[in-house]
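[#protein-structures] MJ: dropping Transcription factor bHLH135 here for a structure pass
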Amino acid sequence: MMSSRRSRITEDEINELISKLQSLLPEARRSSVGRASASKLLKETCNYIKSLHREVDDLSDRLSGLMASMDTNSAEAEIVRSLLQS
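AK: finished. structure tokens for Transcription factor bHLH135:
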């Protein structure tokens, strides 16, 4: 039976991953975080992801309302359907 060894992540690798994560946050959030601790950056990242989920939910609701009010055989409905399939 093979034993599995856990590879350890070095502090430099963690710092590199934190920097990459920070670069993914929008500029406004990054400026408020600065060179903050990893825990603060992770909290900011979680908040950003939650806001993206809320935005997706809102856009989904708006799209559902638009589709419900639209004639399903109209050219506009066909355009929306083709965009959703892309």
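MJ: nice. The helical segments are 11-24, 27-33, 38-69, 75-85.
AK: one more thing. The chain has four helices and no strands.
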